[in-house]
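thought: fold this chain, then report.
action: predict
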Amino acid sequence: MKKVIAALALATAPLYYTLAFAPAPLHKKTGSSTTASSLLQLSSSPLANANKPTELPDSLSDAASIAANACHQLFLNGGPMTRCRVDFDTSIGDETYTTLKSSTEFMQQFVSSLSLACVEGVREQKQRQVMKLVEAKAELREVQEQIDEVTSFAGDDDDDDDVGGSEKSSAKSDLVDKLTRREEELMQIIANQGFDPSADSWDGPKLRIYFPDEGSAALARRDWKSEVPSCVEFSSCGGVQVADTSKDAVILFFCPRASEAEFVEKILYETEEKRGEALMLTVMVNPLLVDMGVTGFGMAGRRLRERLIDGLIPAYYLRTLPWGALTRVWPQLFSVWQEDANESSGYRLIKAMDRLPSNPEVEDIYDIENGDMRAPSEGFGLLNALGDFVNGMTRL
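observation:
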């Protein structure tokens, strides 16, 4: 699985490189009129692909864009207040980093793509930032050339003892100071990817991310500002909710844990009641809402599943395996891929299913494909059905 991990771990191109390929905001018809952006919808319904296997993404950036588009398509098909989930796991069992930490880069790019797809005005703002970034880079080269030119001739003034030479030297010094200040300003614009906090303030619909705790939310406020559009707001589960949510159009819960299940449920219901049809989407990314030590797998866990989890539509799923990967994009099939050096893509499809297979089933699929066991005559048997239940509960 080294190839998939390497591809997904590559440092991806800045957002302005992928801007042209991000899904455009599509809006539903209002009465008999159709917005211009709605003409960008795919000519065929995504449901036409319902019985087709899911291809593997080319990179982490590609996976994030595909996941965002799947969530957006769910909204277009299901209408406001659609609930869905996205599961992304490339750890292959490595617990060196927490799920939140290991999926942060994916989340940043997923949030950027989802904002471009769903939040009106973000695309136009990003285009302005791209132009500002390009202009800043071009001007920076000119400014640096001017600084080099001025400083290279600064020594000529040292031989002038008259008043005119002194004034000339002073003027050059002032020019260098002015150019240096401009150089610093341009470098800051480039470092912010064209984002200017004073000029790019956001007053439109918002996408809000709820983190498991305030510490994670505070780090995101500090570190994510230059990575995501300015429509993105950061909040946390638990504590007193003081943020203004009156403009929230999309809400995301990032790696919510079983200990936050009560807060997640409360926030979700209150937001849906407050925002109504203005709330387009609720997306849970890598949710872990049922845990033996917190909710248990008994009646409490069952009721939580019925109220909160069962209604989540799996929009995107990607999990790497030691020998391949398991993936799915709505509304296509769950697909198991195995590494194969003889294939041009490096992988071959070995199984496609209309449901998420359990961990034992995935291993059985691999063993059957490679001749290590015989295929069962009817399904994968009672033990794997039990494994499906247990693994399904532990991954929520």
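thought: worth noting. Confidence is low (pLDDT under 50) at residues 9-43.
final: tokens above.
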